[in-house]
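Let's practice the habit of predicting before peeking. Look at the sequence and jot down your guess about where helices and strands might fall. Then scroll down.
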Amino acid sequence: MLRRWGRRNGIIAALLAAAVLLAGCGMPAPHLTMAEDVPTVPAALIEEPAGLAESEVAVLAGGCFWGVQGVFQHVTGVSQAVSGYAGGKATTAQYELVSSGATGHAESVQITFNPQMIGYSQLLQIYFSVAHDPTELNRQGPDVGTQYRSAIFPTSAEQVRIAQAYIDQLEQAAIFKAPIVTRIEPEQTFYPAEDYHQDYLTRNPTSVYIMINDLPKIENLKRVRPDVYRADPVLVFGAVSS
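Done guessing? Here is the structure:
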């Protein structure tokens, strides 16, 4: 009886693993990953002056863009979060090509935000705490390849300064158990991804991949940053019908 139960559990686990392999952003590694407790990441010591601008753009990469987009769509002060590609050429900004890992692109998210409501360094704090693991080199969870690298694509010299200072701050504070591998890659163009990648987390909440890898990020955002969490995500294509 126990042997039969163990065999049944093994079959279920194999089927679940296969589902994740088929559902991932690219070519996931053959194992499942569950969300762990997020580290306590302090606020940045340096923040850009708010100024008078009501709109600014940040571009961040941290693994599969489904989850990163989903996180920032739930952040107060963000007016849009678009999945896409950065780090390569316009001619190769296509999912099938980017998935090869040979284009230089990283799956990224372009975040439009109101600096009067939330600062760039606050977005970075969310990025380094709940959106991804900045210590994983050329991978994120089950997804492996340079297209899943941890990277910041600054849109101004001020963003370069703030991002580098924040990484230095976190490293000096030894927040993580391993070195931060996040790259700062300025002067790169962002290219929006195909429509079917937009709002993917919200449109596919029962996907095994999303449930295991991404929904815990939303819960972590709600738990550790309730001050900026918004229950209703700001979507690229508007409301999702139930």
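How did you do? The domain at 2-224 is CATH 3.30.1060.10 (Peptide Methionine Sulfoxide Reductase; Chain A).
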